[in-house]
Amino acid sequence: MDYVYASRISSLQPSAIREILKVTADPSVISFAAGNPSPEAFPSRELAELAAGLFASGAASALQYGVSEGYAPLREITAARLREKFGIGSPDDDLIIVSGGQQGVELTAKVLLNEGDTVVCEEPSFIGALNAFRSYGVKLAGVPCGERGMDMDALAQRLSAEPRPKLIYTIPTFQNPTGATMPAERRRLLVELAARFDVPLLEDDPYRELRYEGEDAPALKSLDTGGRVIYCGSFSKVIAPGIRLGYICAPKGLMQKLIVAKQVSDVHSNLFFQALVCEYIKRYDIDAHIGQIRSLYRRKRDLMASLLHKQFSFTLPQGGLFIWAELPQGLDGFEYCRRAAAKKVAAVPGASFLTDERAASRAIRLNFSLPSFGQIEQGCALLGEALCEYMG
Ligand SMILES: Cc1ncc(COP(=O)(O)O)c(C=O)c1O
Q1: Which residues line ligand 1 (CB under 6 A)?
Q2: How far is the CA of 303 from the centre of ligand 1 (A)?
Q3: From residue 163, how far is each of 58, 118, 157, 166, 354 by CA, in Å?
Q4: What does each of the 392 residues of the chain score in pLDDT, given as a tens digit?
Q5: Which of 37, 44, 118, 131 has the greatest CB tally within 10 Å of its CB?
Q6: Where are the domains of the chain?
Q7: Which ligand 1 atom is nearest residue 244's CA?
Q8: Site to substitute for ligand 1 among 78, 108, 182, 204, most atoms within 8 A of C-beta
Q9: CATH code of the domain occupying 7-42+287-391
């Protein structure tokens, strides 16, 4: 049958990342393309032990339906940890468990956006979020993102223009794809601008705890006094992405709508894994575990940076999973990634992260968490060869 697709889905293109990831199905290809954590960073032994214990003690409640808000002990322990470590969440907020940060972004879009609304986001930005917004038929207004995050003058201009944007979406810490982190001063300005123009701010923060050097910058959520910031976090990068667990911390009134939206989407997130993650946090030292992940990724980042710096221009990210490298003037990121893939090394062209994916970009995004140290060495050598050949 010839299906006639809904416009919300027919406007979405399979992302360039997916296309390039197809190349990575070939095991001989070194992939710097995905955004995956390293399997070495999963607490697999601990989770296996806890899972066996849960089954042995009769896992009936963890295998039963649950409430859409999530497993209460996990909500409590997560809210307490965010409050104590990062000052995130006030008595006017609530926290629910969602199926990954991606669902947090999607539910926020579902609750706040109508077709034709404008969403301001960093340019470039995370494809998963851009596609979530696109699927609601909104217009994306990109604001340039440099090494200190979103440009505040350009944002102020955009917010003064009509129609007034309905939402500001930002990844202020170790941004995907640029690795940029917004300094504290700029964060204050951003929260002030959102207040002045009365626009909600969606803070997408899955990388906050993957800092390799420098001081933590305050979460926008911790600076907000007007109930304007919706905070999305994730267990994907600090425990494992396959468990599909994240959280939203947002003002209570808005949360009621998010809960109804979640009920419609998937009833609730995987309850067995919620119980497992809760036990993990109670019985083990998650901060020590994150410390180990940081030390592993810091070494991988440093190795990749040391191998790339002669040929590529980039700012060393202070955390996160990516190096955003610029090719010399006149070269194109797409063409370069095609040539690199032919040499069996995969990277993502910068244009894939733009609000207009057809626009040109000479940037590429390189992931350093997933490849082994050996693959980083080999892959960077191949990237160098591909660049030399492309430059002629
Ligand atoms: C900026 C950003 N937000 C959200 C996500 C979604 O993560 P998850 O749904 O696995 O929590 C990602 C994943 O890479 C991301 O980079």
Answers
A1: 35, 100-102, 126, 128, 171, 176, 204, 206, 234, 236, 241, 246
A2: 24
A3: 56, 8, 12, 9, 21
A4: 999 888 888 777 766 556 666 788 889 999 999 899 999 999 999 999 999 999 888 777 889 999 999 999 999 999 999 999 999 999 999 999 999 999 999 999 999 999 999 999 999 999 999 999 999 999 999 999 999 999 999 999 999 998 899 999 999 999 999 999 999 999 999 999 999 999 999 999 999 999 999 999 999 999 999 999 999 999 999 999 999 999 999 999 999 999 999 999 999 999 999 999 999 999 999 999 999 999 999 999 999 999 999 899 999 999 999 999 999 999 999 999 999 999 999 999 999 999 997 889 999 999 999 999 999 999 999 999 999 999 98
A5: 37
A6: 7-42+287-391, 65-283
A7: 10
A8: 204
A9: 3.90.1150.10
Strand pairing report for 93-98 and 246-251? antiparallel
Closest CA to 366 of 387, 349, 388, 384: 349
CA–centroid distance for 84 within its chain: 23
CB of 337 closer than 8 Å to CB of 349: yes
Cα angle: 262, vertex 220, 103; to 5 degrees: 20
Query: Which residue puts its alpha carbon closest to atom 14 of ligand 1?
Result: 35
**Ligand 1 centroid vs 284 CA: distance in angstroms?**
24
Q: Do domains 7-42+287-391 and 65-283 have the same CATH topology?
A: no
Query: For residue 189, how far is its CA from the centre of ligand 1 (angstroms)?
Result: 25
Ligand 1 atom closest to Cα of 246?
A: 11
Geometric angle at alpha carbon 241, from 235 and 245, rounded to 5°:
45
Nearest atom in ligand 1 to 126's CA: 1
In angstroms, what is the span from residue 206 Cα to ligand 1's centroid?
A: 6
Class of domain 65-283: alpha beta
**In what helix (H) or strand (E) does residue 204 lie, and over which residues does it extend?**
strand 201-204
Ligand 1 center to residue 102 CA distance, Å? Answer: 5
Give me ligand 1 centre to Cα 204, in Å: 8
The pTM assigned to this predicted structure is: 0.97
What residue type is assigned to position 34 of the chain? A
